[in-house]
Amino acid sequence: MELQFDDSALVRDYISGDERALEILINRHNQRITSFIYSKVLDRDATEDIFQDTFIKVIKTLKKGNYSEEGKFLPWVMRIAHNLIIDHFRKNKRLPKFEGGEDFNIFSVIGDDQLNVERQLIKDQIDTDLGMLIDELPDDQREVLIMRIYKDMSFKDISEATGVSINTALGRMRYALINLRKIIQKNKIVLTN
Amino acid sequence: MEKIYSEQTNTCRLTRVKKETITFLLHYSRSLKVINYQGFQFESHLN
């Protein structure tokens, strides 16, 4: 016959530093506490979380010496779990939860517009390649293109900065783009993400 | 609109928490030390 220590003896042992006593207590009551929590929240992950939080409270209370021997150990733990279950429902009321079902996934509705690492790498590469292509352009065209695209200047500002008319600046921009396309086509460069 | 509030339900009853959860709690318990100093209690975690 297995020797069974009662809970209060194990609690006393644990308070006096025997960590093994806690393991016995947790394993002994694991099923009852888990079933109790699960019957209320009906969610496996939430059950694990509440179980964990319950025992963190138990451990803290016991280690701080705030546990009174008056009641029984299990009803006391159940009470803590019960309070945490209430907290769980209160929190869920404030923060509605979206979960994916078989036929519906919330991530098909909300998306992340940030590029992932791979796409970011590709984008950086394209930017670098494009910079090198722009360097191939004649000086006057390159100047206008850089001012328009990279410095976001208006054609009016560009014409003032370069000392040519707006139409000339527009024309240089047009030729810059045509020439870029030519270089890209000629060298069969792929610049898509 | 209410159609998007769907919940995934696993019909299997959960009767015991995972071993990892228990291991975590035992490690947590081992690392936690409560220090009493002049009527104050301090929690410290040893690595």
Regions with little confidence, pLDDT below 50 for 5+ residues of chain A: none
Going across the biggest sheet of chain B, name each strand in turn.
Answer: 1-2
Query: Helix count of chain A?
Result: 8
Oligomer category: heterodimer
Q: Biggest β-sheet of chain B: count, sense, barrel?
A: 2 strands, antiparallel
Q: Roughly how many Å apart are the termini of chain A? A: 71 Å
Radius of gyration of chain B equals 20 Å
Instruction: Give helix % range of chain B.
Output: 25-40%
Basic shape of chain A: rod-shaped
| Helix share bin of chain A | 55-70%
- Percent of sequence in beta strands of chain A: under 5%
Q: What structural class do the secondary elements of chain B suggest?
A: alpha+beta
Mean pLDDT of chain B: 78
Measured on Cα atoms, how large is the radius of gyration of chain A?
Answer: 35 Å
**Number of separate domains of chain B:** 1
**Percent strand of chain B:** 25-35%
| Number of distinct beta strands of chain B | 2
Can you tell me about this structure?
The complex is a heterodimer of chains A (193) and B (47). Chain A has helices at 7-15, 19-41, 44-63, 73-94, 117-135, 139-150, 155-162, 166-186. Chain A is mostly helical. In chain A, helix 2 crosses helix 4 (73-94) and helix 6 (139-150) crosses helix 8 (166-186). The longest helix of chain A is centred in the N-terminal third of the chain and has 23 residues, at 19-41. Chain A is rod-shaped, with a radius of gyration of 35 Å. The model of chain A has no long low-confidence stretch (mean pLDDT 86). Chain B is of the alpha+beta class. Chain B has one domain. Chain B has one helix at 19-31, and strands at 32-37, 40-45. A two-stranded antiparallel ribbon of chain B has the order 1-2. In chain B, a hairpin with a 2-residue loop joins strand 1 (32-37) and strand 2 (40-45). The chains are: A mainly alpha (193), B alpha+beta (47). Chain A binds chain B through residues 19, 22-23, 26-27, 30-31, 34-35, 38, 42, 44, 47-48, 51-52, 55-56, 59-60, 63-65, 96-104, 106, 109, and chain B through 3-10, 13-18, 21-22, 24-26, 28-30, 32-34, 41, 43.
